[in-house]
Structure formats: C-alpha cells, structure tokens
C-alpha cells in the first residue's frame, strides 16, 4: 500500500467515526475498514453501528443523545417482560422494576442484574450526573439519579430508543431472572 492510499484510509476511518449517526444519507464507504475504526468491547465499527441501528438508537447509544421526554416507545409501557439493549441484545431491565416517574422516560429502580450496566460520573452540560451504559457493548442508555422509590432509592432514567422490549411470552436466550 502506498502512502496516498494509507492517508486515504485514515481519513476515511476518521470521517466515519465523526459522522457516526448524523451522516446517514451519505453514501457509505465500501471496502475494508481500517482496524483503528473498531470499538474494543464489541468489535463493531461506528460504521457498522450506523448501518445496524435505527437513527434514534444510534443517536442515543453511540452519541450519548437523549430522546425527547414522552416521545419514546416505552415510557408508558405497562406490559410484563424484559428490556434488552437495542445495540447488542443484553438483558438490562425488567418490567417488575419499572415505575411511574412522571418524567416521560422509562424509569427503573434497579437493573435486571447489577452486572448488566456500568455507571460512571458524567459532568457534561454543567451537571453532575451518573451515566448508565450497557456493560456488553458500551452503549449509552441514560442516567441514574438518587431520587427513586424504595427499595433502592434509585431512578434509572433510560431512553426508550436504547431499549428493545421482549414480552414475557418470549424467552430471552435462556437468561433467568428473579
Ligand atoms: Zn448493549
């Protein structure tokens, strides 16, 4: 590979990372992607995420976006079932732990299993919040606040677009919940 080709590849990789979710109408670059363009944990490039996910899911999961309150699919969902990551399918939340927060976003007082999500300090937009991400694919889900109901006192404020609901009748990859 000559130098020109190499710089072209690097530009291509950088461009597709920057344009992750907002450049859907542009023609997708074809051909092999540079190895630097992959995300460590799930081994998916931002290009692949963009192609695999609906626009809102990509905006939330990959760009840490937030859907408008009361606009999502699940804030008012009262069905029994499990909420999976819209990015990778990992079981994240259970309808048994969902409550009415009045915020317009699906709210849970705990994750289905502690290991399903990761939490980390987020000081963006001049606020001190705790960001919640999927532990399997690193996708952004929402934030957790300490004004939730008993028994945990926590409020996991999650974007509908980051979730996929599986009603109880369907089995979720043999995962057991208590
Ligand atoms: Zn995930």
List keywords for this structure.
alpha+beta; globular; 18% helix; binds zinc ion; 9 strands; 178 residues
Can you put this structure into words, describing what you see?
The protein is α+β, with helices and mostly antiparallel strands and 178 residues long. It has 3 helices and 9 strands; from the N terminus they run αααβββββββββ. The protein has helices at residues 3-18, 46-52, 55-63, and strands at residues 81-85, 91-94, 98-99, 107-108, 117-122, 129-134, 140-145, 155-158, 163-167. The strands form 2 sheets. A 6-stranded antiparallel β-sheet has the order 3-4-8-7-6-5. A 3-stranded antiparallel β-sheet has the order 2-1-9, with no helix packed on it. Strand 3 and strand 4 form a beta hairpin. It is globular and about 60 Å long. The termini are far apart. The protein binds zinc ion (ZN). Zinc ion is lined by residues 85, 87-88, 90, 134, 136-137, 139.
Blueprint (SSEs and pairs):
Elements (H helix, E strand, L loop, with lengths): L2 H16 L27 H7 L2 H9 L17 E5 L5 E4 L3 E2 L7 E2 L8 E6 L6 E6 L5 E6 L9 E4 L4 E5 L11
Antiparallel strand pairs: 1-2, 1-9, 3-4, 4-8, 5-6, 6-7, 7-8
Mean pLDDT: 83
List the ligand species. zinc ion
Uncertain residue segments: 23-40
N-C termini distance: 55 Å
* CA radius of gyration: 18 Å
Task: Classify the beta-strand content into a percent band.
Answer: 15-25%
| Shape field | globular
Order the strands across the largest sheet as they lie in space: 3-4-8-7-6-5
Query: Number of DSSP strands?
Result: 9
The largest pleated sheet is described as: 6 strands, antiparallel
